[in-house]
Specification:
The complex is a heterodimer. Chain A is mainly beta. The termini of chain A are far apart. In chain B, strands 2, 4, 5, 6, 9, 10 and 11 form a seven-stranded mixed β-sheet that branches. The radius of gyration of chain B is 13 Å and the shape is globular. The chains are: A mainly beta, B mainly beta. The interface between A and B is medium-sized, with 22 and 25 residues.
Chain lengths: 114, 116
Amino acid sequence: AQSVTQPDIHITVSEGASLELRCNYSYGATPYLFWYVQSPGQGLQLLLKYFSGDTLVQGIKGFEAEFKRSQSSFNLRKPSVHWSDAAEYFCAVGVAGGGNKLTFGTGTQLKVEL
Amino acid sequence: GAVVSQHPSWVICKSGTSVKIECRSLDFQATTMFWYRQFPKQSLMLMATSNEGSKATYEQGVEKDKFLINHASLTLSTLTVTSAHPEDSSFYICSATYRAAKNIQYFGAGTRLSVL
């Protein structure tokens, strides 16, 4: 079965600084990879996804992520963080033929200092 | 596009009563809907998967008789928490996929259930 690890439970960055959130997955083949963001008391919003092709994917709100097969990673990045980016970020993995189910990581709470 | 609406956003009920949560896809036909449970500061736990017109498939450890799921149409799925108890208090989130983007789940805003 696939699994997802988000090593950082909490991250604090200053507004305007760059951001990288880590995500590692465990799966034998190439999975479908997602990043979602959740604001307090809200559902999840899709930031970006990777299915195949170009390993650097662009998402909404200025986020991007890079799929690295050799490292089984799909890290999320943003060059300059805004205070409104403070939220919980979840990495998720789906597999072909898996009934469209997703396995979520435990999330990374992002705090932005002004 | 791909908007999922969940209602109510917050519900308080007495122990022993039943509560129904609705999940609607507003601008697409949802071939599959998912129900998750999220405990405070934790990840999402998949409870069940439902396809229109068929019985829901529950994840291991989820009580079918406690959490009744109905997917009566291509735009509506409901989760009924029967005989709710304080330990059922949680944040419940639904998501949906559609045929042209079946690998992408679109999420509702969630329902906060508090059982007194």
